[in-house]
Design a protein that fits this description.
Number of domains: 1
Oligomer: single chain
Distance between the termini: 32 Å
Strand content: 5-15%
Structural class: mainly alpha
Radius of gyration: 20 Å
Order of helices and strands: HHHEEHHHEHHHEEH
Mean pLDDT: 85
Helix content: 55-70%
Number of strands: 5
Largest sheet: 3 strands, antiparallel
Strand order of the largest sheet: 1-2-3
Shape: globular
Length: 290
């Protein structure tokens, strides 16, 4: 899933309008565009009448469809976390797999939008490093909207994506699933959604926005991995991406490094803080929906 998501996002970047001149000098954006340019030029040589942006769109659509068809064909146990639920895909047909793949990619892009909004509350524009600038490019044009309007729009989009995910998959409470796994018991029953009300809509929207905490935790682990790979592989670009990514996420709670000896303890403390905050929020939302 990670490889598919990275590939789709790389070509997705080509479809977005870039109004910030710094985007064209960002090494991470340039490296991504350089890789995708080779692929697009390869297809453009055979299909010279097709614009490059349309080729990028076709590649994004093809990867989403391919992922969904493969998951349905091989009955892969694909799960998505959404708020307080774990949603498992129902492979009734290849079309169901494609739809689940599309909604899953929508959730990924949505969480990036929410992450950029959250980081903007704690990091001033002049304090943004190159990784943060690359994230802003990846979230265009949503990142150009006023902050309050963006929050309202993202809240509604999150509720809509959550509703779509519940209808194409089987939702179970996350903590019940974890308890069943620990006890080696049968999976908990599928949650039966009540009729849509303003309260349920708000809970779904809040749950979707809370998911960004889990994404931050996963990204933090990925950036830590990048620093180790960059160090042992002698890759300055990958190493700087890891360090700048860790600094970007850590600034949400710790604006300055917390060094003790040779080590910066912000990533470890942030991992615990994100996990605790997410679990508290999920438990409160679970109580509210019951």
């Amino acid at each position: 899933m990670l490889i598919f998501n990275l590939l789709i996002l790389m070509f997705w970047l080509r479809l977005l309008p870039q109004r910030n001149e710094k985007a064209f000098f960002n090494p991470y954006v340039l490296a991504t565009l350089s890789f995708t340019d080779r692929v697009v030029r390869f297809f453009h040589a055979a299909l010279s009448f097709v614009p490059g942006i349309l080729i990028s769109l076709i590649i994004v659509a093809f990867l989403i469809v391919l992922r969904g068809v493969l998951m349905a064909r091989f009955d892969f146990p694909w799960q998505e976390t959404n708020g307080m639920w774990i949603v498992t895909g129902k492979w009734t047909s290849p079309g169901a797999g494609v739809l689940f793949s599309l909604v899953s990619f929508g959730l990924l892009v949505y969480r990036l939008w929410v992450l950029e909004l959250l980081l903007g509350l704690f990091i001033r524009p002049r304090q943004r490093n190159r990784t943060h600038q690359a994230l802003s490019c990846l979230t265009m044009p949503v990142s150009m909207l006023p902050r309050l309007s963006r929050f309202a729009i993202l809240f509604c989009i999150g509720a809509g994506l959550a509703l779509a995910l519940q209808h194409i998959g089987e939702a179970r409470f996350e903590w019940e699933v974890k308890v069943a796994i620990l006890r080696d018991a049968e999976p908990p029953p599928v949650f039966a959604f009540p009729a849509l009300t303003p309260q349920l809509f708000c809970i779904l929207g809040a749950g979707s926005m809370v998911d960004v905490l889990g994404m931050m935790r996963d990204m933090l682990l990925l950036f830590i991995l990048f620093t180790f790979i960059g160090r042992f592989n002698q890759s300055p670009l990958l190493s700087s991406l890891g360090h700048e990514g860790i600094d970007m996420l850590s600034r949400v709670i710790f604006p300055k490094p917390l060094r003790w000896g040779w080590m910066d303890w912000r990533p470890i403390l942030l991992l615990f803080a994100l996990a605790a905050t997410q679990q508290i929020a999920i438990r409160l939302l679970s109580i509210a929906i019951r």
